[in-house]
Amino acid sequence: MTISQVLIRTDLWILDRIFQPVANRLPERLPATECGMSCLFGALMLSAVAIVSIIFMVGMSPGNITFNMLTWVFGLSFYLGISRVRSVIRPGQANPLRVMLLGMRLISIPFAAWSFWQSVSAPAGLMLPLWFNFLANLVFVTGIYLVSCQLPPPAMQREEKTFTGWETSTSGNR
After folding, report:
1. Domain count, the chain
2. What is the pTM of this model?
């Protein structure tokens, strides 16, 4: 088995075993796609906080500021692109973003691990901004996996909410 096959199997295992059960248990009014988009937006905001805090706390050269702002604009364009194509995701049908975002999911986990290492080993002056950066990467990973989940049909969501014979109801009738 090649390295690419191992990476794809690992990604699909994370998607199917960790995030898909979470997506199946989300309420109908907050599908996994919307929750994932909220996470992606939150990652953008946390990234902006990290960039601004580094600029004000530590100081940066104009070249570094430009690079970080262009990186943030790239993240914003990714978010806008995903929000434009999320209309193709329908409950009970195959999610096209599952395949389209495979490469982005594969590289987002090492980036989150790298940002964790940076935040742990940072000097005291950079620790707070780098923790915000790690949190932004972690929220991004969560968001991109939730956006990639299949939306279950409404009947399946109701079945997933039953636990040991007790059926949870949102109407208040017991």
Report:
1. 1
2. 0.84
